[in-house]
Predict the structure of FMN-binding glutamate synthase family protein.
Amino acid sequence: METVWSFLASVPVWLYIILAIAAIIALRDVIQKKHTIQHNFPLVGHFRYMIETIGPELRQYIVANNREELPFNRRQRSWIYASSKKENNYQGFGTDQNMQEAGYVLIKPAMLPFKVAASHSHHVKNGKDPDHYTIPSAKVIGEYHQRKRPYRPRSVVNVSAMSYGSLSARAIESLNKGSYKFGNYHNTGEGGLSPYHKYGADVVFNMGTSYFGVRDDDGNFVMEKLVKLMQDNPSVRMIELKLSQGAKPGKGGVLPASKITAEIAEIRGVPIGKDVVSPPYHSAFSDVRGMVDFIEQMAAATGLPVGIKSAVGKTDMWEELAEIMVETGKGPDFITIDGGEGGTGAAPPSFADHVSLPWVFAFSTVYKIFQQRNLNDRITFIASGKLGLPAQAVMAFAMGADVINVAREAMLSIGCIQAQSCHTNRCPTGIATNNKWLESGIDPALKSERFSNYMTTLAKEIIEITHASGYEHPCQFGMADVDISMGDNNKTITLSDNYGYLKTIVPYPGLPALLHCEHLGARAPIEKPA
């Protein structure tokens, strides 16, 4: 007996404390009825939930292969990470993809590539040229409708709609500073124009059903507030009227009172201490003709190009919009098509997985509606939906996109690890959260540089693929320049045969004419060597 007491006395106190805590947890597990696993397997059952919690990370880094994950596989993420850090993003020993897989994109190079003159800003030897990797849009947005301030985006690839609130202040600041450095525009998302969107980049003011920043206390749109906001912020170059988004079309959001800080309340024009419910529909108009009138009123009052953003499903209202544009000569200056596979915002799985068409089907459907009525020369088509990788971007240009918006790719470039916890306010990288501790890990000076590096590399590869295909500008790509693999039957099919149309030819006056356009977007001044 003395031996037993001697042994017990030799056990450290901390071990008794641990055993006591374990006993209490085990007793609690047996008594509770909420979790069957924990009841049947006290203590051990907790490991099931722990492993389930870190399951995505285990699969991401240990289990899944390079091409297996969604929405972005490891190879795609690695290319973005390496590009943003100016590291080696090349690939050795050939492709690891199955090029016979159905739907695989195959870009056709020319026998003789486009010959770049030694004086050309895109020539490989002109790396110090301020426009070395600049690809302006071939179209001037708002020119057809004679807006007072038409706009030619300096870059054909830009930042898509992501609000301050869904993204942290430092993440928004990083993207805006990086956008200013590279020269692309930065879409505010529907959360309003925040101070973090004001570091110099061109801005697209996105306006959803709650009219954040330009509303009264009851959520109604106020034109005077919009006009003043645009006058006070000349960096805003376009207004985007959001009808729906790819992640959750036809569904409004809820901003809980707990997340409404004094700053967010001021930016969005909402009360503190009260949930804000965004309706799925607009109150400023009730039909397509009313929407066209609303667009024209905003354009007349602000002088800015005004467009719409929407996911795509039924086509009857798209047909009606096109008919009204033919009849009146009025309508949106640009149309942003959001693919159903996109979305940085939180959404019910039923919406994110099943509601609205993927980008390729959505875009081809809408493009043909306006093409059949000879309207495509009036509209700039903006594409959004996993297009921030070179091959996907080229395919979009070949299908008729004039400009591309990227969201998640931009997030990856500033450190996102695809934890898919955007909806929890616990984003481990501080990007999609308002948690100040998590957000403090973001250094805007560093992350803005990385975003600019990513955009530069993306533009570089788009330019190189364009030249390899025999063109100077991606607007020159056509539907016959890209094939899609049909799978195991050893056949490919052109985009035109697959989607049933030929892209409308975009007039292209040459790169110098685009770069010297008076409506060209801004960028940070290039520092000249001393």
Q: What stands out?
A: Residues 314 and 356 are 9 Å apart (CA to CA). Residues 444-468 form the longest helix (25 residues). The radius of gyration is 26 Å. DSSP finds 19 helices and 13 strands in the chain.
